[in-house]
What we know:
By secondary structure, the chain is mostly beta strands. 12% of the residues lie in helices and 34% in strands.
Amino acid sequence: MTTPSVTRLALLHPSLSFSHNTLLKFCKMVKSSLILGAIAAFGSYVQAKEIKVDEKKAARLYDTGVMHNKLKASKEAVWEKQEAAGAFASEQYPTLGYTKCVQGVAEAIKGDPLNTFKCHNADLYSFLSHADLGSTGGRGSSSWGWTSDDGREFVAIGQYDGTAFAEITKKGQLVYLGRLPQYSSPSQWREIRSYKNYVIIGSEAVGHGIQIFDFKKLLKIDPKKPVVFDAKKDLTSHFNTLLPVGRAHNVVVNEELKYAVAVGAMPRNDPICASGLNFFDLTDPSKPKSLGCAKGDGYVHDAQCIVYRGPDKRYQGRDICYGYNEDTLTIYDVTNKANVTNIISRISYEGAAYTHQGWVLDAQNQEFLVLDDELDERDGTGPGGDGYPVTFIWDIRDLEKPKQTGHFKHPTKSIDHNQYVKDSYIYQSHYGAGLRVLDGRSIPSDPTGAGVYEAAWFDIYPEDDNLAGGGTVAFVGTWSSYAFFKSGYIFINTIERGAFVVKLTEKAFQKP
């Protein structure tokens, strides 16, 4: 092994400034033929951040629910104004068909700025308003999809007054099939996931519990005769165990291990679950069984629970949950679910205001994940403090010592919300900026995020396009998207208007 001189190393990468001894030790570990790649790797390493949790701040603002209540109040204030302005009267939004993205816009109705959508490498295929989707409340939230055995593609659409169901045809048209009303009172917060052919629905409405409904009930519906199901009688089952007031902020599913998780249940001072991970078995969806809770880090806003497949040999094959817990990324080993909390690590990050949600870059090789913060743009904290959203990148190759290695800074003002990853492409919902798709394929080789770029976007909220920064830091526009269909169609659910179906062009998958 040969060791390059410190002088040569400095010349090769003058932007890095290290001590002579540090460089010398590093050089002795590296073959000279690989020095350029090694310098880049070392540069990434020294930029990695391990920021400890501010426990006093956590106790004051997060454990008490102060920040959660602040976030909720901020959203409700915006929606009150939207309601007063008539934005939720969704019957005003016309049905839209296929519209190609040309020179950065999809002009769905010629000459109408409110139906002209900024876009890049994404075409519009269909739009139906919430009124067209059977809702009288006109407010959208979460969504998820299901593909039948014969390849038909269906979506469950969260709304203020229940869950709508629709099919996406081979030509990308959205066809309304019916709806499942809310179990108790209406609520803006309605989160949806799927387990096999079942849809799992949670809500923050008191008394709602978890609805479990069979997607197969949609297979023989005549679209000319949409079906309004009974909110209770038509369920496969209903789960309410260890939900003290029958509400949960979110639901999570581990399909491989046949269970689901209700997270963010209230109250926070519940002695059994404390708003943490509430597990229930779905081996028989008609008879969900409580498996226990992991309450050790308190309130969980969202999570991803999957079998561990990654480089950390200590946890191979274990059941791991990546928790997004308001001010931390918290990683759990939940192999034992019987009211035991096994926290592997718990760490904060630069500018943490409200840790919202995240996803691993590759579930089959869990080395990196991406994470978003929902309040940093509004609160002016960290790299997102100027109102331009930030996607945080984490190295999780050592589950006991995760590191924030970099971030991607978005070019349009907004607030980033839910995100999911397919083939290293990151599909994000950015409220008023709509669907944003990042190419994250470079992250394993450069975890600083320098190689990440926006491969495509479709802005579903033209009302804010002419503002400074191209958008607004407000809770308007899109809530969620679903991009896992084999057809390539992407479903987008919005708060005010309704639901869009778009599809990326081939250019989205090419390097710029």
